[in-house]
Amino acid sequence: MTHQLNINNTLFFIILVSSILISSRCANSESTIYDVLKSHGLPKGLLPKGVKDFSFDDSGRFEVHLDEACNAKFENELHYDQNISGNLSYGEINGLSGISAQDLFLWFDVKEIRVDVPSSGLIYFDVGFVSKQFSLSSFETPRDCLAVQSVDLQLYSDSTLPTQPAYNKVLSVCVCVCVCVCVCQHMVCDFTKKS
């Protein structure tokens, strides 16, 4: 009888431990990258709809794999490479690669995304030399993403942008041209008035 009781207790213990392990494994497999973003104080819509393949480790390092590169429209347009990676901590992603933002007609690599104060309703995208702010509500839900070829983009990073002295020279030339055009226009107006 005691032998039967020990076997029953052992079986019960094995079944209990197995069910706990299986349920915890199922719970982990059901979490999505969107849940991971949300639990780190970031909006789910930072990544496009339909991400299924991702990895996330205890150090905060994540990788996302999309079926293909794509663009999504927010206040500005965002480009997502097929592979996206970065380091996730509460309210911020740094060391980011695989996301680019369009400003005017230029594309810039996004290096960091952060939410400093959630109640401010703002999210910041750092492209290396400047930080752009957007409405946090724009990123509440994942957006549809239109497939594109990565080579279609003319990306600018810190190394490809004109240096400050070069930029100042271009700006000086533009100002000189504008002044010359205004002076010439004024002279033509004066000449036509006298005629």
UniProtKB/TrEMBL annotation:
Q: Which Pfam families match?
A: DUF538
The organism of origin for this protein: Daucus carota subsp. sativus (Carrot)
Q: What is the lineage of its organism?
A: Eukaryota, Viridiplantae, Streptophyta, Embryophyta, Tracheophyta
Keyword Lyase part of the UniProt annotation: no
Q: Superkingdom of the source?
A: Eukaryota
InterPro entries from the UniProt entry: At5g01610-like, DUF538
Signal peptide annotation: 1-26
Q: Does the keyword Cell cycle apply?
A: no
The entry's keywords: Signal
Name of the protein described by the UniProt record: Transmembrane protein
